[in-house]
Specification:
The protein has a domain of about 40 residues. Helix content is about 40%, strand content about 0%. The mean pLDDT is about 75.
Length: about 70
């Protein structure tokens, strides 16, 4: 008689998948891309849509009146 082609200890149950390092590497790449995108979100926004408008404009100088108005 011949020996079986596969040994019973290596037969996997139906529906189960083996955990391989490729899954771990893929998850690490996706996580690093997400963290990098989060940390560079202002730079990415400026690159994609142009610089944002400033919320406050700071100017210096004097204000002069050219006409006087007197009220009673």
């Amino acid at each position: 008689m011949h020996a079986p082609l596969t040994s019973p200890s290596k037969v996997e149950a139906p529906g189960k998948t083996r955990f391989t390092p490729a899954w771990l590497i893929g998850a690490a790449v996706i996580a690093c891309a997400g963290v990098g995108t989060y940390l560079a979100r202002d730079t990415l926004h400026d690159w994609l849509f142009g610089p944002r408008a400033a919320a406050v404009i700071l100017v210096s100088g004097n204000i002069e009146a050219h006409q006087s108005v007197l009220g009673f």
